# Entry
Amino acid sequence: MSLFSCKKQACVFLLVCVVSSVFVECSRYTKDVSHSCIGEFCVAKSAFDEPCMDYRKVTKNIERDIDNEEEEDHDFIDYPKEGLFRWDPVEIGHKRELELEADKFYSMITRAMEPPIFEIPGFLSDEECDGIIDRTRKQGLFNSDVHVDPDAREQEKKIKRLIGHADSPAGNFLVWDDNRDGVISKDELKSFAAESKFLYMSDEEVDEMIEKMELTEFDDGIVTIEEFKTLRTAAMEKYFLEMKKTHPKHRDRYSQQTWLPQRGNYDKLLRQIRQRVANLTKLPMSIIKGGEHLQVVHYNINGHYHAHYDSQSNVQFPQYKCCHQNLDKLPECRLCRYITILYYLNQPEIGGETAFVAADVDDFNETEFRKREKGDHYNLSKFCHQATLVIPPKRGTAIMWYNHHLSASGWLGDLDWKTLHGGCDILKGEKWLANNWLTAPNEGEKHIRSNYYIKELEELHDDSVY
# Structure
């Protein structure tokens, strides 16, 4: 850019701020959404107020984006110059009224401070919820579970053939005999599985295990010290581990999913939602369009997803670049999901809450938490309602949170360890939800385009040829 251009822009900027003072205090922020201020980079009245936005201009952009996508000047869209925008949560219960579409306001309510978690009721309409579910059904779903032995029966046979005691504490009678009465009961078997393997078995599952494994020592319901000599504890321990890995109720994740592209001219409904997301997050379309496809997830009875992180630490994995900038390097890359926006597409009859197990926990230490010394609180089938924040599913509601801190320069910082979250069990009915992950770059890679955004530009260019 020439010196003349810079001086010219500075003059224009100064003139804009002077003119804007006639209408409203020259500010990048304003609580009053009944009008718009002019100019975007003036001094803020308050650090948590809403950024200025001319909604007449936004409405025009929405119409062009939805109806004339191919006419958009994509080369003009660029990453922000001053880092990533981030809403200040202010305080729990703080409510903002945001005009995300012309003359249409949405409430954004703070549900947690650390990390900042916001609830936006009615973010999606019934038509949009149904539209996403219908598109998903047509496209088809696949199981979300991974790394499961495809031949469970063969694995069962292998376990059954194991003989002798385990080399671990499971081979010690006293480890099982909690009350020191000289016998091991079925309840003590359940306690051992819970305390040593974080596997929470029902009475029916214990009986099923005894039958399948032909553990005749439990024929009368208890195992004596003498009977323990022949008890195949090595096989039992292996059974616990396999059950935790493969059983729908006990494995970390039990659901089905698919991915819906939101890019280009692919789908007007999805692009309409994407524009609303841009207005909500105050991020430029280069960031929005650089995000991943919309992930749609379906849960049936017992469906759940135990506590996990949506993104990954750049401090723990400094050797890896962000996946959205290096899709050809999968899986040797790092997830860089700055924001998660979760949409509830329906309302299950019972269950299906989203639980944040570390939200607003003072001095949370993820390393200590991982030791599970106070129970396996990753397990939301067991500990859902002991989480510090539990948000019940309600059709059309969106939950938004920041997975990363910001760096000193305002770009993607390290993972926020308090974003640990998951989906609680579906006890009655079914649950449909969608995850909208907005990726963002680190300071050193902010010049590198997202591969998703590049793909969109390529497809739009190819479409324009025909």
Q: What stands out?
A: The radius of gyration is 27 Å. The first strand starts at residue 29 and ends at 30. Residues 1-77, 146-152 have pLDDT under 50 and may be disordered.
